[in-house]
Each structure stands twice: as C-alpha cells, then as structure tokens.
Amino acid sequence: MKNIRPIMRKKRIAFLLFPKTQLMDFAGPAQVFYEAGQVGGRSYDLQYASVTEDIETEQQIRFSALREFTQLNLQQGDLICLPGIDFKSLQAGVADAAIRAVTPWIKRQRNNGVEIATICTGSLLLGKMGLLDGIQCATHWKCVEYFREQFPRARLRQDRLYCLDQGIFTSAGMTSGIDMALALIERWDNPLIAARVAQEMVINIRRPDTEEQKNIFLDFKNHFNPDVYQIQEILSSRLEVAFTIQDLGRQMNKSPRHLSRLFKVHTGKTIQQYRNEVRLQHGQRLLLHSEMTVNEVALACGFDNVRQFIRLWKKSKGVPPGQFRKMTALP
Q1: Rounded distance, CA 207 to CA 183, Å?
Q2: 44-93 tens-digit pLDDT
Q3: CA 38 – CA 200 distance, rounded (Å)
Q4: How many angstroms separate the CA atoms of 301 and 313, rounded?
Q5: Spatial CA neighbour of 281 closest among 219, 209, 204
Q6: What per-residue confidence (pLDDT) applies to 330?
Q7: Same domain, 187 and 229
Q8: Do 41 and 189 touch, CB atoms closer than 8 A?
Q9: Last-in-domain residue among 192, 211, 245
Q10: Is 162 helix (H, G, I), strand (E, B) or coil?
C-alpha cells in the first residue's frame, strides 16, 4: 500500500485594509508573497479584508467585495499584514473607528499565535491597538516624532529598515515593505527563494535591515546578466557539491574562461570568492541555528575538510568558528 503524503495547509496571509491605505504599502508585499509561490517556494493563501466591504485608498482606487475581518479563519503561524495609511489622515482620526473595531480581534489572533506585519504607518495603527509595548519596531521617518510621543513604551529603531521582534514585523516607509517581505520569504523558505523573487521582480538588491546583516544570496551587485545569475543559483543551491569552473562550463555549455571573465565584470568577485562567501554565510546560519559540530558544518557547506573551513572562517571573521559561536550565542 502506497504512503500518501498529507497535504500541507498553505500559510495564510491576510491583508487588513483601512481607509486611506497607501497602495504601495499593500501592493509591494502582496506581489512578493505571490511571486514566492511562482518561483518554487511554498504557496501562500493571500486574503484581503477590511472593517467594511469596500475601502478607498489614498490614491483614490476603490476596493470592493472585501471580506469582513471576522470572517478570516487564521491559525498559529499565519500572518496579518497592516499596510500603512496616509499620515495626515491618521492624525485626523480617519481610521479611528476601524481601529477600535478590529483591536479586540487582532489581540485574540496574536494570543493564538498569529504573527503581525506592518508597513510604513501601519506601525502607528498597531501602536494605537496597544500592541507595541516593549517591541522593537520601525516606522516611516516623517512619523518618528509623532510615534515617540504616542507610544513611549515601544522600542523604536530609527536605524532599521525593518524589525522582526516577538512575532511582530514592522517596516519603515513605502518600499521597505518589499524588503521586509523578502526577509520573511527568506525566513519561511530559504535565501535562494527570496533571491529568485527579487530577480523576478527586477529588484537588484534586497536591502537588509542593517548593513551588518547583508546577505550574499541576495546581493546581485546591480546586475541582471542571466549567465551570472545562473552561476549564482547553481552555486547557492548546491553548496555541498565541489563545483569547478570546468563543471560550470559543461553544465551551462559555455567556455569556462568566458564565464570567469563575465562573473568578475558583473559582480566584482571571482567565482571562487563568491562561492566561499556563500559557503561561509551558510556556515554561519548552521553555527547559530543548529547543534551541528564545526566538522559537520564544514562538510554541509561543501568544504573538503574542516581545516579549510576554519582557515577561511578565521580570515573572514577574525576568530575560529567555535569561538564565534560562543561569542554570538543568545544569553
């Protein structure tokens, strides 16, 4: 008798729209989540709701036949996304009635393990619901003074494009919602899926929340050369395989010399330099988020032996991988 694999429930992402929603705050992240399912990642069940059946955006586009928010059937691990609204309208109280209506429901969802994301002034909506106390969060730069006055218990980070803290994800202004959505795809799927989404959406660089957390998987160095992208995808998706430039040439039916020259022109790195950076970044993830030994991490990253891994790691980080793990371990 054949084993039947259970069908996994799609992760549900519910966009909760308020009067005067900013179109970019809503459309950008929605497109990211949609594209993830198209390029080989998990599929997401995107749903759209409001307090009323229809709302008008700040750009005077009217959305009709929206779900009433209480009809949403969300479970632990699903996501509620709050796009921002026009700041002046928020200050004038345009959304106050809607905020009061949804607040008890939002709080119940959070208690049930549903995560919440905001874009731009969406963090102000969440703050008015009383859900940002003690939470690291980001918001649009022009709202900072208002934010600090209204929500003094929130831990506002002006140095971040987005923050991921305790199941609440907040992003700064406008297009940073796309950056946050890509970071969530990386978190839920893997960096390669996020990179494919960025490439599909013609986003040359997914901006990290801080430069220190830059991700080599998504760093396309402002290029869109299909051969170079294919090399990056091959190397990033098969870290355990010891590819040579001749192997890449045969797989892509291209001259190894041509590929080497092309890669250096478009990325500023040699293929081996890029491969080493990818393997070291993957090694860092395994060191910090698994219980694998240093030797096991080295093998999982495609190094011939642990000595080679340790030598490259010390050159990059300044300390051996075991010491790095102890230094960066959570208290």
Answers
A1: 9
A2: 999 999 999 899 999 999 999 999 999 999 999 999 999 999 999 999 99
A3: 10
A4: 12
A5: 219
A6: 47
A7: no
A8: yes
A9: 192
A10: strand
